[in-house]
Structures are given as C-alpha cells and as structure tokens.
Amino acid sequence: MPHPTTRRRFIALAGGGAVFATLPLAGCATAYPEEATQAWRAAHAETDLRRHMLAHALLAPNPHNRQPWIADLTQPGRIGLVCDGERLLPETDPFGRQILIGCGAFIELAVIAAAQRGVAVDVQLFPDGAPAAHTLPRGSRVAVLQLGEAGSARPDPLFAQIPRRHTNKTAYANDRELPAQLTAQWAQTAQRFGLTSGVVADAGGKERLRAITREANEIESVTPRTWLESAHLMRIGPHAITTHRDGISLNGTMPRLMHAVGLFDPMEVPSPGSANLKRVMERWAPFETGSGYLWLASTGNTRQVQVDAGRAYVRLHLQATAAGAQMHPLSQALQEFPEMRGPYAAVHRALALDPQRSTLQMLARTGFAMEAAQPSPRRGLQAMLKA
C-alpha cells in the first residue's frame, strides 16, 4: 500500500531528514518515540476477538501513513470499515485508488488475525455500493467483515509476520537474487486475488524502471500542490510524532535543529534546476538499489479490484518478510494527477501492460536491505473505533 511517494523520500533525506534550502544535510536518524510505535508491540494483548483483529489490521501499509480507517463495532459479530474522509490525499491520489489499496491491506490483516483465533471472516465489499471511479471514497463503507463460528478457520502461517513487516526505505544490496520460491509464491498470491504479478530483475529492465521512477519523483517534487500535500503532513520531532502518529515522521537531529531555529521551511517547493531539487534527487539514490522490482497489475480498475490489490500486496510483503527480504513501494509513476501522465504511460509500456486494459496497482523495489527498518508510528486502536 507504501507507500513510497514524496512522503517516503522525506523520511530518507538526511537519515530521516528533509531538504534544506541553502545548507547541506547532516545528522543521523533517531528512533521514533516508543509511545508512537507501541501499537506494534501491543496487538497481541487484545483478548476480545474484534479488537484483536483491528489491533493487527491497523499495522497495515498505507499511503502517507494516513491510516484512513474507521472501524464500526455497533453490530455484534461484525466490523464495518469506513474510509475516513479526513485522511485522504486528494492531490497525489485524486481518485482514492491508493487509499482503497491501504483499506484492502487493513482487511487482509484483520482476516489473518481472525484465522489465528480459529474464526473465518466473510468480507462483503461496498455494501452500500462502490464510490464512482473518479470521486474520492470519502466516508464510504468499504467493507463489512462478518465473523464466522469458532473453529471455522485454520491459522494462517503469515500471522507471525504481521508485527515484523516494515517498509524499509534504506539502501538494498545490488548483488543478491530473490529466492525462486518467493517469486513463485508472489505469482500464486496475485492469481488468488485475480491479479497478475511479475519481477523485473534484469539489468536493462531495472534501469528502465529506475529512469521512470526518478522522473516521476522529480515531477511530484516540483509540482507545488503535490509537494505541499506531503509538507503539511510532516511531523518533526518527538512531540509532533507522538501527538499525530501518522504522516511523515522526521526525527533526525539536523532537521529538528534547523526547524527549531527557523532555517528549515518544509513549505519551500523545489523548483526545476534549483539546488534544493538537486538535493532531493540525490536523496533518491538509495531507492535505486535492490534485487529488482515487483509489480502487481489488474485487468480493469474497479473499486473492488483496488481493495483486492491491497489484500494481495500485504500478503506479498508478509511473504517477503518471512523470507528475510524487504519491500518498498515506489508509487509516484502510478499516480493519476495530470502532470504524471508521461511516467504513468511509460511504466505501463515498460512492463508490457496496455493501460486501456490493465492497471498497474503497485510497483515496489525489493531485495535485502543493508539496515533494519524501524516500525512506523501508528495511532492507537481507540482513535479509529466507532462503538
């Protein structure tokens, strides 16, 4: 669902820092406040079945770490998932496709968590009808999860990977191949959800995708409204990170210091040819490392397909985690705002996909990271409950 746009680039800058107008970047990333990441350690403590499901589901990858979920528990034996209209990304995700992918990942983790307790879940998508294709899914009921009887499901072997799965945005090794068994698992999982997947691991194919994703990143950076969408979601320093527990968390020493003395203005939009943009693109370099690119595509682009893409993607990521591999979505070229039309068409061509028939739902670099990733901040369970 990560997840992977300007928000992810911000985190990578200066070890979790940002772009400074006139000064070089420095400083090391520091760990996020323990309180902000408590959700990753607390999920197992929930005894109530529905809360157990939701405590694991809220760890799902999602764009900009917006966590666009409201869980309705007003009907016994059911969970209603509502798309939080206050947590959308209208500039970089104008139709809510990526938001619904994040909702799909949430649903799949809830289903896996229920199976761990021996309960099957009947997922009913869009019980009130799907939102129109070119409108934001603001306030839409994305799904109703109907709980089955005790003993109706077997535990899913991927359950143990849920708290271990993190989106790793550091440099990956370039000299390690992905296990054939893992890529076969990915193809089987995609097919299970009616999707297709593939891995681009050859040198020429990787270079083509690097060029496209690099161009897409630059476009998003110099387009004021898309840059500022990320800037408004920056959480700088422990207090802001703990208070919000979402968005773009920046806890590096240098960005905190520069922001405190007024020398770092996240609202300064990089302009073409500027030193500011040059630094942005330099910080993109780690994102061009790895064993290859995993892609996930659908025939058509219905709202149900978008949710299913999220369910499939999070399983792909859990499978990678189980195999000791990492994954980092690079979603810029997949975005549907007008300035991105060139890279959007180019990335479909590079993967031999006809955009009139197929939609590239996810593109992620994958491989073996040089550094471990820390868990991203999450809001507490109570913050998303409607009971």
Structure description:
- The chain is globular and about 60 Å long.
- Helices cover 35% and strands 16% of the residues.
- It has helices spanning 6-12, 39-42, 49-57, 97-116, 180-192, 203-222, 224-231, 237-244, 253-260, 275-282, 303-322, 341-350, and strands at 69-72, 78-83, 119-125, 141-150, 196-200, 234-236, 248-250, 292-299, 326-329, 358-367, 385-386.
- It is α+β, with helices and mostly antiparallel strands.
- Mean pLDDT is 91; it is low at 2-29.
- It folds into 2 domains: 6-28 and 163-367, NADH Oxidase, CATH 3.40.109.10; 34-161, 3-Layer(aba) Sandwich (NADH Oxidase).
- The two termini are 27 Å apart.
- Strands 3-4-2-1-11 form a 5-stranded mixed beta sheet, covered by helices on one side. Strands 5-8-10-9 form a 4-stranded antiparallel beta sheet. A two-stranded parallel sheet has the order 6-7.
- It has 12 helices and 11 strands.
- Number of distinct helices: 12
Main β-sheet, spatial strand arrangement: 3-4-2-1-11
Class by helix and strand content?
A: alpha+beta
Instruction: Give me the CATH architecture of the largest domain, please.
Output: 3-Layer(aba) Sandwich
Radius of gyration: 20 Å
CATH class of the largest domain: Alpha Beta
Could you please say which CATH topology of the largest domain applies here?
NADH Oxidase
Give the overall silhouette.
globular
Assembly status: single chain
Number of spatially distinct domains: 2
Helix and strand element order: HHHEEHEEHEHHEHEHHEHEHEE
Low-confidence stretches: 2-29
The CATH homologous superfamily of the largest domain: NADH Oxidase
